[in-house]
Amino acid sequence: MTTDAEEPTLTVDELAARAGVTVRTVRFYGGKGLLPPPEIGPRRVGHYGPGHLARLALIEELRQQGMTLAAIERYLRQLPSDLSPHELAIHRAVVASWSPDTARTLSRRELERRAGRSLTDEDMERLAAMNVVTAADDETFRVDVGLLRLGVQLLDVPLSQEAILAARTVLVEHSRAAAHALAQLFRGEVAERDARDVKSLSAYMHPLVVQALLTTFQRSLREELSEWLIGSRAG
Asked: Structure pTM?
């Protein structure tokens, strides 16, 4: 499974180390069909790519949110089969948002291990500007682990930091507007119910709503970009 240009080069041991899980866990997920099989190279050695790593990270995030294997399987089955590693990272960031606090205090070394790469001072400044990393003291950082992988991928996007921050502002503003409209809708539906029913409904609807919003947004963005590319070629 590779949906980007990078070839699968990780062994199962390397994949497990990058994801922070055991080799047994990788093979268990593969046996359950949650993780696609590796590409078999010379000497019958399996090789994994960025898509496997991103999907494995999403599975682990779902598990940490308390979802059962059956629920994880249902969630993954609903996702488009051609999602890129970057798109899977976005889904993982959304899933991580279900938790009230995804921040962790990490050393620079642990931060780089989780990021899967060395981070320059400029990288750290960009991550801080995106609210992914905040200096806790001289040696540790408060890190939003749910957004870390996405933030690291944005380091390589050929956009200025100003453009990325402006995009973030647009997303925050529109997300708040959508959340307000949905809250108003649900409030009308549950106005006559017990407060406990309202809380239960909120917990049930949260993951469904964010996945629906994410899927709709991804499709809309693809359409907008396609129209823009067609228009630029025509011009």
From this structure: 0.52
